[in-house]
Design a protein that fits this description.
By secondary structure, the chain is mainly beta. It has a single domain, classed as Rubrerythrin, domain 2, CATH 2.20.28. The protein has a 3-stranded antiparallel sheet. It is globular and about 35 Å long. Bound molecules: zinc ion.
Length: about 60
């Protein structure tokens, strides 16, 4: 399962863990989240998330 990073606040959504604060059960793929799902920390839309490996490459330091 993948991990995705919020490019606004660096919150990490881990598909294998889900997200208890938004009622998302463990094992929920990011693409299966509702269209209106937003970052539980900063409220950013799904468009603002990138795969963790892409974030690491584009983020020096
Ligand atoms: Zn965020």
């Amino acid at each position: 399962m993948a991990r995705l990073v919020c490019t606004v606040c660096q919150y990490v959504y881990d598909e294998s863990h889900g997200e208890t604060s938004t009622g998302t059960p463990p094992g929920t793929a990011f693409e299966d989240l509702p269209e209106d799902w937003t970052c539980p920390v900063c409220g950013a839309e799904k468009d603002m998330f990138v795969p963790e490996e892409d974030w690491a490459e584009g983020n020096p330091g």
